[in-house]
Structures are given as structure tokens and as C-alpha cells.
Amino acid sequence: MEEKQYLIKKFSEFYSKHRIDLPKEFKKREFAFVPFESIPEFVMRRHVSFESEEEFRGYVAKNVPAHVYYSSAYYENPGEEKMEKKGWIGADLIFDIDGDHLPIKTKNIASLLERTKIEVKKLIKLLKTDFGVKEVEIFFSGGRGYHVHVLDEDFRYLEAPERREIIDYLTLNNPRLFGNFPESNAEIRVKRYLSKKGIPERNWKKEKFIKSAIDALRVYIDAPVTADVKRLIRMPGTLHGKSGLRVTKVEDIETFDPFRDAIAFGEEKVRVRILKKVKMKMGGYEFNFSPGDSAEIPEFSAIYLICRGLAKI
Fold first, then answer.
1. Which residues does UniProt mark as catalytic (predicted)?
2. Catalytic one among 222, 228, 257, 293?
3. 2-159+221-261 to CATH, choices 3.40.50.300, 3.90.920.10, 3.30.420.40, 3.30.930.10
């Protein structure tokens, strides 16, 4: 309980000091919140809408949230509780690249986040070269990955089946390869890749070469996020309740470091008791603790460890 009250206090201070930019056309969006009072249960308050930034700030000040979401969709009546009465207009095309969906196993969150960057770069390259996307924004999710928002309005009005076609293309889902039928997009991409790699055409049907091509070309995205035309996504600028990190716009994916660039709190010293093994770098500090250790550490790292369940006050 002491930890929850501490986090409520710190999150409240953050929201009182920082202006959160609302998404474009926010009056047409649904907002959703997970209040701290429901933690450790994940109880979401949905179907909230706002007419002004002041109204949003007042709501957050009164109901300090652990998590804040908004709809990728635009609605005529975003505050309606019944989905069929909201009046769907369109939805942003959004991709979620989460470390939990990658074909690797590691407990090192920093290494996992570095690996997700590779997928982000693959995704953006394909969106621009193969789909003609002109403008995207990248956001660190505050947790274990990144969100990519397509800004081109042409994609806003795609229905779910059309979005699933994009997903299938990016993920090489059920690729039809080298059969007695017209070439699929997947087959064209695999052949192009193998040709560029200098693999002789006579070897293209060998399983090891097909597998290497698919592994290199496939983008590991969370498909339901992209297919869902009424999806709730984390709101940029807000805090992630399981890390205390900020959902942060990424200007340069190559140099972005979540444990430096998404820190939301200061360096005031806080004494914590370590519950589990901790070995990490954050904000220019290195931390290496064992269960049972007591340590004074910067506030930003204390909040991170508490949110992760790795430490107590």
C-alpha cells in the first residue's frame, strides 16, 4: 500500500507539472484510463471523451491514472458506451512492435528493446517502399517496444480486411511459395531477396534458403493492434504504470535510448528495499543489487523498480 501511495503522489506531480499534448482531432476520440485505485487489478474506465485540454487535465488530476489510452478510431459520438452508437468515421493505421512477440528469449530488457529497433526499421522501410507511406511517427511505448503511427490520411479509411492484407504482406503469413499458381507477393519478395543474396536460382526451393529469406523479410508486429479499427493505444506523453517511463516520441530510432530519453522523474535520492535480482543501466547510472539489499537510488530508478515489482519503499 505504501508503494501505491508513493506512485500516486509521483504520477500526480508529473501530470501537474507537464503539459500532455492531446492527439489530433481529440474531440472525436475515445479515451480510457486505468486508475491507480484499481491496481493490482487492471480495471479500465472506457468511453470517456473531452471537449477541451482543460477538461482532460482536470480529469487526470482528479483520477490519477496508472495508464492512459486513446482510440485509434475517430467517432461521431466517442463518449457513447455502446460501440454501435459511436459512429465510426475512420482509424489511424498503427503498428505495435513488442519485445514479447519477437522470436528471441532474454530477460535483459535493454537487449530486447534494441532488438525491437531492428523490426521498427524493417517496418518503416517496407511501409515507404512497398506501400508508398510518406509520413510516420515512432513512439516508445513506455514498456517493451515501439508504436509506429502512419500519418497519411489515405490509410485512415481502410477497413479491417484491408488492414489484414497489409499484415499478411508484412509478416509473410501463409506464404505460397513455388507452387503451380500465380506468384504471391510473398514468393516475389522471397525470390527478390535470394537473388540479391546471390543464391543460385536452382537452390531457391531449398528449405534452408526459404527459411533464411522469410526470417529476414518478416516483420514481427502485434497483428491484432493493426487489424483492429477501434483499438485503444497508449497516449504519447503519458506514463506507463508498469515502468514509470514516459510514452515518448522517437526522433532518431538509431540513437534513442529508453533508459535515458524516456525518463520522467528526477534524481532525488529514495531508499528502497530490493526484492529481486537487479542489474541494469539507467540515466547514466549502473545498478547491481541482490534480493534483500537496501539502497538509496535516484527517484527515476526507484519508481521504475517499484513499478516493475523489483523493489519496495
1. 96, 98, 222
2. 222
3. 3.90.920.10
